[in-house]
Amino acid sequence: MSAGVGQHLLIEMYDCDSRALKDPKVIESALLGVARCCQTTVIHHHFHEFEPQGVSGVIVIAESHISIHTWPELGYAAVDFFTCGDNKLAQPCMDQLTEALQSRRHSLRAVARGVDIVAGIQKQSAPKYQPLHSVIFDYNADFVSRFIVPEMAAPNAELVKRNVRELAEQVYVFPLFTGEFCRLLIEESENQGGWITVLEKTADEHSTLEGVPDLIEPDTTLSWERLPGMPEVYSKVIENHVRPVVETLWQTFRLQKWDMPAVRKYEPHVVSGMDLHYDNEIVGMIGYLNTGFEGGGTVFPRWNLTIGRSGDIAPGSMAVYPGGVSHEHLALPVQTGIRYMLSNSLY
Predict the structure, then answer these.
(1) Which residue out of 56, 67, 84, 343 is catalytically annotated?
(2) Which of 62, 134, 271, 288 could make an S-S bridge to 41, C-beta 3.0–4.6 Å?
């Protein structure tokens, strides 16, 4: 969970003992037990019994508050636990409440509060990043001639047909960046050092599709947000060198937006690969940045197709394919060395 000013635990207790949910003394004892178990400092508490049934209560703690509302007729209770800091409170809360309310089914959702405020303070206090290779941060004519392959400098329909290969049904590969750009981008990413490693599958709010969870596989990534100036460069690359390709390949598709690209790396004993999954974007795009590793490769099982093993595709090449279940894919584990990728979603 991202660090903020505190964490808010939203607890749902189902199939509870209705007698416990009607009794304000039982509810008070249960919540005070939670407060003691989690070593909070109780300031004040109040519990109210409703007619014909139901209890609401709140405990004001130095760290914030704990509250509960019960529906005995439904065997249900809703509990909020908001506390400063990032204490590991979830399991003690669940254990205490489950026993006290005799709940047979329950769930918990943890929400970090004040994340944007903390991030803003950290951003203001952080020293300005000094690029290792400033030349890749400025999109201009020199950038295009040096870092974009000649055949994609000004792509049109004829050049797209000539330089894009269809390896399987709607799985296309085309050259985009030069090998020099790939090398400098990898060195810049390692110099910045802000890699984020996720070791468990998580579900986060989708960046563009409201109400649709974005299932995130374990990975190690560096967002281009951490490379000031690179998002602007990438926007120009998308507009001038990628849009003509994808709008030629899919004639009815009009590229409207894209998410923030990220450099992804796979290495043994950290995150070495990725399980079978599918993407929610309209068009997925991944780039291959290096060689010199063993193992790895993007696999589309439906066509028994593997792309991107070391040496079988030139660094700077991009693969594009439709999002959705039709193009499930996985990343084979890297056995030695480090495999660097570029990932992006198009809408």
Answers:
(1) 84
(2) 62
